[in-house]
Amino acid sequence: MNEGEKWRIEFEAAEKLYANAQHILSNTPSSRKETAIISTLHRLNAARDKLSTKLALLDVTPGERARREELLETLGDKGRRLREMAKFKDREKLLGAEGQTK
User: What number of other Cβ atoms are within 10 A of residue 99's Cβ?
Assistant: First the structure.
């Protein structure tokens, strides 16, 4: 398996984190929801950062690099949407927790 295929598999795993977060929002009791979402946001951000680093090292065409950069941007968009969907009472806590992963 080459590095490009490994990158794609890791990207798909990050996409599954977002799907998991949507499941958490709809099926987790409120008392545990915030902790679960914050944890998932940390994992999603860490996955995006790791993929970004790996992309910088991949030997791909400029067009392929641009396509993968767009995919990474979609992960960032999904993280922002996830924060909006969660609508936590203490938004500062959520935003502060996300900032720690950067």
Answer: 9
Nearest alpha-carbon partner for 38 in 99, 65, 6, 77: 99
Angle at CA 12, nearest 5°, toward 100 and 77? 50
Contacts of 11 (CB under 8 A, 6+ apart): 51, 68, 71, 72, 75
Tokens of 32: 């545990």
Question: In the predicted model, is pLDDT for residue 50 greater than 90?
Answer: yes
User: In whole angstroms, what is the distance from residue 30 CA to residue 15 CA?
Assistant: 24
pTM of the entire structure? 0.72
Per-residue pLDDT, 95: 53
Single-letter amino acid, residue 100: Q
Question: What is the DSSP annotation of 35-100?
Answer: HHHHHHHHHHHHHHHHHHHHHHH----HHHHHHHHHHHHHHHHHHHHHHHHH--S-HHHHHHHHHT
